[in-house]
C-alpha cells in the first residue's frame, strides 16, 4: 500500500482539535508527517504546530534543531523548541530516560483538547511488540502503541501505524524531502537497534508481511486489554471505587481476575505495574494473620495491608527534620506528604496567643508523646490515640506535631490538644495540612 497524505485526514478531522502538535525529530518518519500534514493543512479544523525536543545527546543536536526549524519555516508551520537534560541514574536506560523527558515536554505543552501527532509507523509497532514480548508483557504491553489514546489534557494520535517505513521512504524520495539520519540508530548496543538490524532482516526474509500481521496482533491485544479493563472497572465499582481495596473482594475472585483488578487499581493510583512475582506475593499475603501489616514493594510503589484492606502508595521517605512554622507561611514537607500552614481563624484551631513571633515548632514522633485531644476526658499516650483513630501505621511517624516550647499543641490532620484549643470568639490558628496521603 502506497502512502497518501489524504489518508491522514479522517482521524485528524474526527478529533477536531484547536491545535495539532507534531512531534518533530527531523528523521524520515516525522519529516514525512510534517510535509504530509502541511499539504492538508487547509482541511484541518485547527492550527498545525510542530515541537522539537533537543536532548543534547549528539554533537550535531543544534544543527538538527536548525534543520527542523528551516523545514517548518519553509512550510509555514510554527515550531516550538524545548531543551532537556538527559541524565540517567544508576541502572537506568538512556533511551528510556530520554523518552520519558520527551513525553513530559509533550504533556506540559498540550492544552485542553489539543492533539499530539507522532510519526510511529508499522515497523516501529513490530519492534515494540517484540520488545514487549521479550520482556514477558501481557495483553496491555503487547498492544504496543495505540493509534489513538487519551494523553495529558488532550489526545495522542499515530496516523502512520498502517504504513511501513519503506512506503514512507518511497513517498519522501518522490517529494525530494530531506531528513536527518541519527547515527545512534545504528548502534546495536540499544535493544531496539539490535532488533532492527540483527533480528528483523532474517525474520522479514522468512515472513515478509511480519510488520502487518504483528500489527494486527497488537490491535487484537489492545481489544483484549480493553475488555480486561472493563471487567476490572466493574469489580472496582462493586466496592465503590475505593482508594483502599477490601480484602473480601480480592478473596472472592479467581486468581487471574484478582490480578487483573490489582493491575487496574494500581494504574488508577498512577503507580507502576508490579512484576508478576510481586502480584503473586500480594495475593499470597492476603491470608496473613490479622495482626500483621505486610508491605510488598517494587520500584516506585508499595502495597500495604491494614485492617483487611490494601493500600497502594509511593514509598514514603523518612519524615523531614523539625522546623519552625510561622502564621501565614506555607511549608512543603516533601516526599508526597503535602504542605503545612497556620491560617488565622476565629474560634478555631490552636489559640493564637501560643504562637510567638518565632512561630511554632513542628516535629515528628520520637515515641513517648502524650496528650488529651480537645473534647476528650483523658490524657493518654499519643500512640493509643492513633490506634483508636485507626491511623495507618506507616504514616504515624510522619504526622506533623506542633509544639510551643515542649508543650504538644496539635497533631496535624487529627486534633488540637487540651487546653490549647481556641475558644468561641478567640483568635485561633487553623492547622491546614494539604495534599497529604489518606491517614485513616
- Average pLDDT metric: 89
Helix-residue proportion: 25-40%
CATH superfamily of the largest domain: HUPs
Structural class: alpha+beta
Low-pLDDT residue intervals, each spanning 5 or more residues: none
**Rg to the nearest angstrom?**
28 Å
Total helix count?
A: 13
Largest sheet: 6 strands, mixed
Shape: elongated
Strand order of the largest sheet: 3-2-1-4-6-5
| Total beta strands | 21
What is the CATH T-level topology of the largest domain?
Rossmann fold
Number of domains: 3
Task: Note the beta-strand portion.
Answer: 15-25%
Distance between the termini: 59 Å
- CATH class annotation of the largest domain: Alpha Beta
CATH architecture of the largest domain: 3-Layer(aba) Sandwich
Keywords:
Chorismate Mutase Domain, subunit A; six-stranded mixed β-sheet; 21 strands; Rossmann fold; alpha+beta; 36% helix; 20% strand; five-stranded antiparallel β-sheet; 13 helices; 440 residues
Amino acid at each position: 500500500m502506497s502512502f497518501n497524505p489524504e489518508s491522514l485526514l479522517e482521524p485528524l478531522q474526527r478529533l477536531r482539535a484547536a491545535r495539532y502538535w507534531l512531534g518533530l525529530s527531523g528523521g524520515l518518519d516525522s519529516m514525512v508527517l510534517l510535509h504530509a500534514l502541511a499539504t492538508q493543512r487547509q482541511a484541518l479544523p485547527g492550527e498545525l504546530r510542530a515541537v522539537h525536543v533537543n536532548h543534547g545527546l549528539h554533537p550535531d543536536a543544534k544543527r538538527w534543531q536548525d534543520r527542523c526549524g528551516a523545514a517548518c519555516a519553509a512550510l509555514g508551520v510554527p515550531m516550538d523548541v524545548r531543551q532537556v537534560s538527559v541524565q540517567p541514574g544508576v541502572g537506568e536506560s538512556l533511551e528510556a530516560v530520554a523518552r520519558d523527558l520527551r513525553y513530559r515536554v509533550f504533556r506540559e505543552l498540550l492544552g485542553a483538547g489539543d492533539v499530539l501527532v507522532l510519526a510511529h509507523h508499522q515497523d516501529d509497532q513490530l519492534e515494540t511488540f517484540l520488545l514487549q514480548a521479550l520482556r514477558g508483557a501481557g495483553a496491555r504491553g503487547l498492544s504496543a502503541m495505540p493509534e489513538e489514546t487519551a494523553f495529558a489534557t488532550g489526545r495522542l494520535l499515530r496516523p502512520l501505524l498502517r504504513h511501513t517505513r519503506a512506503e514512507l521512504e518511497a513517498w519522501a524520495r518522490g517529494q525530494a524531502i530531506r531528513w536527518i539520519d541519527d547515527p545512534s540508530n545504528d548502534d546495536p548496543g540499544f535493544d531496539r537497534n539490535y532488533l532492527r538490524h540483527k533480528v528483523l532482516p532474517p525474520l522479514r526474509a522468512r515472513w515478509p508481511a511480519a510488520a502487518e500481521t504483528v500489527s494486527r496482533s497488537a490491535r487484537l491485544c489492545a481489544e483484549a486489554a480493553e475488555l480486561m479493563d472493563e471487567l476490572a472497572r466493574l469489580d472496582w465499582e462493586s466496592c465503590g471505587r475505593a482508594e483502599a481495596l477490601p480484602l473480601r473482594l480480592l478473596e472472592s475472585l479467581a486468581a487471574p481476575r484478582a490480578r487483573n483488578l490489582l493491575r487496574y487499581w494500581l494504574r488508577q493510583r498512577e503507580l507502576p505495574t508490579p512484576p508478576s512475582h510481586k502480584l503473586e506475593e500480594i495475593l499470597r499475603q492476603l491470608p496473613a494473620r490479622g495482626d500483621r501489616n505486610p508491605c510488598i514493594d517494587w520500584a516506585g510503589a508499595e502495597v500495604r495491608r491494614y485492617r483487611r484492606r490494601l493500600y497502594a502508595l509511593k514509598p514514603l521517605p523518612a519524615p523531614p527534620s523539625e522546623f519552625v512554622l510561622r502564621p501565614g507561611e506555607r511549608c512543603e514537607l516533601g516526599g508526597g506528604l503535602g504542605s503545612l500552614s497556620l491560617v488565622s481563624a476565629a474560634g478555631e484551631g490552636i489559640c493564637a496567643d501560643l504562637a510567638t513571633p518565632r512561630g511554632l515548632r513542628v516535629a515528628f514522633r520520637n515515641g513517648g508523646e502524650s496528650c488529651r485531644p480537645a473534647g476528650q476526658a483523658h490524657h493518654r499516650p499519643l500512640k493509643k490515640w492513633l490506634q483508636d483513630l485507626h491511623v495507618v501505621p506507616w504514616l504515624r511517624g510522619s504526622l506533623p506535631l506542633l509544639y510551643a516550647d515542649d508543650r504538644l499543641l496539635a497533631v496535624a490532620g487529627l486534633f488540637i490538644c487540651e487546653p490549647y484549643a481556641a475558644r468561641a470568639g478567640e483568635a485561633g490558628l487553623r492547622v491546614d495540612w494539604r495534599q497529604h496521603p489518606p491517614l485513616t
